[in-house]
Amino acid sequence: MDNNISDAIGVIAQSADTVFILLGAILVLAMHAGFAFLEVGTVRHKNQVNALVKIITDFAFSAVAYFVIGYQVAYGTHFFVSAEALGANHGYELVKFFFLLTFAAAIPAIVSGGIAERGSFRPFLFASALIVAFVYPFFEGIIWNGNFGFQAWLEHTFGAQFHDFAGSVVVHAMGGWLALVAILLLGSRRGRKPGIAFAPSNIPFLALGSWVLIVGWFGFNVMSAQTLDGISGLVAVNSLMAMVGGTIIALIVGKNDPGFIHNGPLAGLVAVCAGSDLMHPVGAFIVGGVAGGLFVVIYTKLQRSAKVDDVLGVWPLHGLCGVWGGIAAGIFGQQAMGGLGGVSIMAQLIGTLAGIIIAVIGGVLVYGIVNKMSSLRLSQEDEFHGADLAIHKIGSTNSDK
């Protein structure tokens, strides 16, 4: 009788874990709609269709690349076994793959915003597949699966592993620094002059994208526990406070600019990912506020740059705020700062630097090789007419009566 009860409890627990991580996967999948509408609202009208198409097709190519190659690179597990084997434990491993896929596919979605309006379509799809198959899972496996002994070395040397609970560095900094490589390779949009920005085409769409990302982010962070017994209200409230801090500081520093106000909460959420399970909510608020201010200041400076034409500001938002998040986990995660402890600032610095190095080297290799095979940049004529008509043969709206 006791064994039957124990077995039944085990089945229920496994089922609950499967549902838990499935809900997380669905929430993070929904974030890709947020990526899409954030880009749609920011780019010029003639590139809105392309923004929508890129996000969904990038996700599709990423899913295939991660299923066939990437997941095995990161975790040493493949899915080329019987359906019976895959369905074991209520298919938990399959749903875990789905959840982690939504993280992996965020990398091309981040890059998409940086290279918008002049990036070619199919070459970047191919490049995205290569990154999700090899570059991202290489670093993911090192940090989240202990591959190559890097984490063990950090723990032995500094007393703690590199801590990145939900991907400030593994996902966001990786995506932001990969985007920077692509941005520098492409160069600026034609007609863009330093200090004179192209205005966003649709603030309501931009705001919608921000809100969808904000809501989905609670799945991104909270469900990173991956099992129901690991769920923590601390992660949820820290995410909330970082989002609020990013919003308030972006409002103040950005002088009421709606673009900054709607990216400020995203900057805060990027930064809190790494230490959201360790920090005190007050610490999370400070981390988010610093990130919101950092985004506004650096993006404003980039607008005056002749070389770095980052359309959505993905390098400061994800690349720099992700780096800040990795370091901040080592500061505000300390018990002396109200956190739970168990982190090392040196391990955080080295782990963050490793992420930047792998992203930059991987980006140079992948984008460089693909660019030699087929140009990553639209022709001058196609860029002038806009990606919507040049690539998809249709505009985003039709005023015919």
TrEMBL record:
The keyword Transmembrane helix applies. It is found in: Membrane. Residues 19-393 form the Ammonium transporter AmtB-like domain. One of its GO terms (molecular function) is ammonium channel activity. The chain crosses the membrane at residues 20-40, 52-74, 94-112, 124-145, 165-186, 198-219, 231-253, 260-278, 284-302, 314-333, 345-370. One of its GO terms (biological process) is ammonium homeostasis. SUPFAM superfamilies: Ammonium transporter. It is a multi-pass membrane protein. GO terms for cellular component: membrane. Keywords: Ammonia transport, Membrane, Transmembrane, Transmembrane helix, Transport. Belongs to the ammonia transporter channel (TC 1.A.11.2) family. This is Ammonium transporter. It comes from Shewanella holmiensis.
